[in-house]
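[Automated response] Your request has been received and processed.

Submitted sequence:
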Amino acid sequence: MSAVVADTAPPVERAEEVLTDEALAFVAELHRRFAPRRAELLARRKERRDEIARTGTLDFLADTAHVRAGDWKVAESPAALNDRRVEITGPTDRKMTINALNSGARIWLADFEDASAPTWQNVIGGQINLIDAYERRIDFTSPEGKTYALLPDAELATVVARPRGWHLDERHLTVDGEPVPGGLVDFGLYFFHNAKRLIAKGKGPYFYLPKTESHLEARLWNDVFVFAQDYVGVPQGTVRATVLIETITAAFEMEEILYELRDHASGLNAGRWDYLFSIVKNFRDAGEKFVLPDRNLVTMTAPFMRAYTELLVRTCHKRGAHAIGGMAAFIPSRRDPEVNAVAFEKVKADKDREAADGFDGSWVAHPDLVPIARASFDAVLGDRPNQKDRLREDVHVEAHELLAIDSLEAKPTYEGLRNAVQVGIRYIEAWLRGMGAVAIFNLMEDAATAEISRSQIWQWINAGVVFADNGDKATADLVRRLAADELAAIRAQVGDDAFAAGAWQQAHDLLLKTALDETYVDFLTLPAYEQLVG
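Generated structure:
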């Protein structure tokens, strides 16, 4: 029996081209074989979090020391993924699909995860857009009459698709009465329809794996890849996966993660907001030394972030994998050249540092940033596709260095709290309307933004933080006042009609619930998904 589309699923134009009987049968097989292990691994996450709460620490795994000491490498990179000096990220809507492929970046992270609110339209429409792009039958005309079309194939970015994380279900697709894990839906439909199509183009089905928390979760993905390649009839090793090291637990298992995926591994990526979110989530009750300051004060030059990124480069190059740097989230302003000049200088400094540290490439959120990032890596790489030969054997990172949050001089501020409330409400409101990538205060924000915002509010209140800039104490009442002020400011800004048409009150209530409830919810997107229409 195939996977079943729920009666509640709204109609999506051309959905039948994606939800074929054959594709749904494949997704059903994935679910039956791998969903039980996924459930076990989610339970293991909770057990590990309980252990962290009990001990207040983390360490490298004793029982995998032989993997770290072993002499092994990941599979050789395919030609299409050998040069990754600039990668652009974004959702798979029709306009973004064209703009990202045309951006001049080497890679496009086609995002079904944090940059895409999982409405059925986004889930299925994104699959249609990618198929149309590969078949070169995609175009787009804006409401203003501007047209978008693909450049020649040789000038297009290579697609690396990011399915949803293991924690999310897809309510519109069930097998034996159970919702299918969202990651298996996104992976399954994309792989089934495009694996052979991509091979014919000299590329392949390439993936980014998000929110991985352990090497056992990487092992599950590897088993999914092995089964899928046999099922569809493509050679083993056709799949390539880049794992986002965006959880604190995964930072202690980088080598093991690459080892589990070694026949399919392409590299590791250094996330930022999700990494900070993971630190707060796991060490939220571990005392003052784990209290993070304002998110914008935690730069990649912070000692514990340097330890994490340098260990990532060292690990990747030791094992023959690509090390991909973090996101430049700035969105250029068409009206403020001074803002642009300052931001471009910050982006350049960030990318110069990554290239000098040994990264093989980095992320940007906007096409205008592609030339800036490319120049930083061109200056170091020249004509070489990467710098994997730079082994960084000077790097030696101890467990305590990864956890040295208290090495930061910066402290939480009242303005940081207000920004967390402002950004949290504005992002969640857009997400509830089906938008996952949102420009807020000249930055491209995604779900990780809302996660770190509400998590920091929760942590500061529960830690009894006194703000460095005005001496106020973080309390639930203060957060409620700031949220009410922000809601009133938004209403004044957008007008009563637009306010009523939006999801502003819902977003306000959801932020407060996930930031103020005594019980900390693991992912904001879980209760938010229950309110998502579509």
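Summary generated for your ticket: The radius of gyration is 22 Å. The first strand starts at residue 4 and ends at 5.
If you did not submit this request, please reply to this message.
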